[in-house]
C-alpha cells in the first residue's frame, strides 16, 4: 500500500503489521496506560469514527486504533469473512499491546464491541477495562448464520449484488444512513463526514466485508462470554439510538451483575463522535479508576 493511496482517517499516518498474510493498519499516539479503539462494522466503517476519542484520550493515555481487515487503510482481501476472524484479529491486537503488568483498556463500538468481548474473554489477564458503545451480540445480531445467510451471501457476491452495493454506498445513501441511524442531530451529518465515509466504502475491495455483514455471516453471540467476564465494564448508550435502541441494555445488565451503564443524551449510534465531550467525561474516570476485578 503506497502512501498516496492512504485514506486520511486520523491526524497521523498508520503503520502496518502483517496478520494472516494481510496488512493491518495501526495508529498510535500519546503516552501512559494503553487503550485500544475498535470501530463498528458497516459498509463505511473505519477508524474515522474513532477520531474524537483517539485525539482526546491521547492527553492522558497511550492510544492505539486499528482498521479491521476489510476496512479503512487495512487490506481488503476477497475473504468470506466470519465473526471468528475479527475475534482472532482483536485478540492478536490485545496480545501486541497489553501485558499482565500493563493490561490494555479496550473501547469498542457496536458489532466490533461484540468481537472485543469474546477476544477479552480469551485473554482477560491482558485487558484492564472494557468500554462498549451500543454493543450487539445479546438480543441483536446474535443468531448463528444458517443456510439462509449463505444463500444471501452468494447472491450478494453476484454482479447484481455488486450493483446493490454501489447503490447502498452513494453519497445520498450514506447521508440517509448517517441521519437515520448514526447521528441523532441531522446537523452533525456534515459534508466532511459524508465524504469520509463515502471514500472508505469505495476503495478497492471495500465490497467484500460489508456483504458478509449484510448477509448475517458476521453475527456473534456473546451471551456466555459476557456473562463470565470479570473485567470492569462500562456500557455507553446513545439516548436516541435507533439501530441499537436503549432498551437492549437490559439484555446486558441481566447477563452480568456489576456492569456500569451510562446514557448520553442527544446521541445515536456513534456516541463517541456525536457527543465527544460527554463521552470522554464519562469514560476517562472509568479508565483511570481502580482496575481490581
UniProtKB/TrEMBL annotation:
<protein>
    <submittedName>
        <fullName>Alpha/beta hydrolase fold protein</fullName>
    </submittedName>
</protein>
<keyword id="KW-0378">Hydrolase</keyword>
<dbReference type="Pfam" id="PF12697">
    <property type="entry name" value="Abhydrolase_6"/>
</dbReference>
<feature type="domain" description="AB hydrolase-1">
    <location>
        <begin position="35"/>
        <end position="281"/>
    </location>
</feature>
<dbReference type="InterPro" id="IPR000073">
    <property type="entry name" value="AB_hydrolase_1"/>
</dbReference>
<dbReference type="GO" id="GO:0016787">
    <property type="term" value="F:hydrolase activity"/>
</dbReference>
<dbReference type="InterPro" id="IPR029058">
    <property type="entry name" value="AB_hydrolase_fold"/>
</dbReference>
Amino acid at each position: 500500500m503506497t502512501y498516496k493511496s492512504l485514506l486520511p482517517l486520523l491526524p497521523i499516518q498508520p503503520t502496518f503489521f502483517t496478520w494472516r498474510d494481510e496488512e493491518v493498519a495501526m495508529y498510535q499516539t500519546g503516552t501512559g496506560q494503553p487503550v485500544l479503539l475498535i470501530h463498528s462494522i458497516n459498509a463505511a466503517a473505519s477508524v474515522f469514527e474513532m477520531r474524537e476519542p483517539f485525539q482526546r484520550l491521547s492527553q492522558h493515555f497511550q492510544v492505539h486504533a486499528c482498521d479491521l481487515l476489510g476496512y479503512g487503510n487495512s487490506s481488503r482481501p476477497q475473504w468470506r469473512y466470519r465473526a471468528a476472524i475479527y475475534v482472532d484479529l482483536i485478540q492478536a491486537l490485545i496480545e501486541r499491546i497489553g501485558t499482565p503488568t500493563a493490561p490494555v483498556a479496550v473501547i469498542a463500538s457496536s458489532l466490533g464491541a461484540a468481537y472485543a468481548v469474546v477476544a477479552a474473554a480469551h485473554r482477560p489477564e491482558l485487558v484492564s477495562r472494557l468500554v462498549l458503545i451500543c454493543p450487539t451480540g445479546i438480543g441483536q445480531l446474535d443468531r448463528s448464520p444458517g443456510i439462509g445467510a449463505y444463500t444471501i451471501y452468494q447472491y450478494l457476491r453476484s454482479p447484481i449484488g455488486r450493483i446493490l452495493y454501489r447503490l447502498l454506498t452513494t453519497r445520498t445513501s450514506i447521508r440517509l444512513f448517517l441521519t437515520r441511524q448514526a447521528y441523532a442531530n441531522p446537523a452533525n451529518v456534515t459534508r466532511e463526514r459524508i465524504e469520509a465515509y463515502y471514500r472508505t466504502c469505495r476503495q478497492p475491495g471495500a465490497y467484500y466485508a460489508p456483504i458478509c455483514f449484510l448477509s448475517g455471516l458476521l453475527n456473534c453471540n456473546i451471551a456466555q462470554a459476557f456473562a463470565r467476564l470479570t473485567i470492569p465494564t462500562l456500557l455507553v448508550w446513545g439516548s436516541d439510538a435507533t439501530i441499537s435502541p436503549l432498551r437492549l441494555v437490559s439484555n446486558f445488565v441481566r447477563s452480568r451483575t456489576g456492569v456500569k451503564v451510562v446514557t448520553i443524551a442527544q446521541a445515536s449510534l456513534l456516541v463517541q463522535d456525536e457527543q465527544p465531550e460527554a463521552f470522554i467525561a464519562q469514560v476517562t474516570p472509568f479508565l483511570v479508576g481502580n482496575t481490581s476485578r
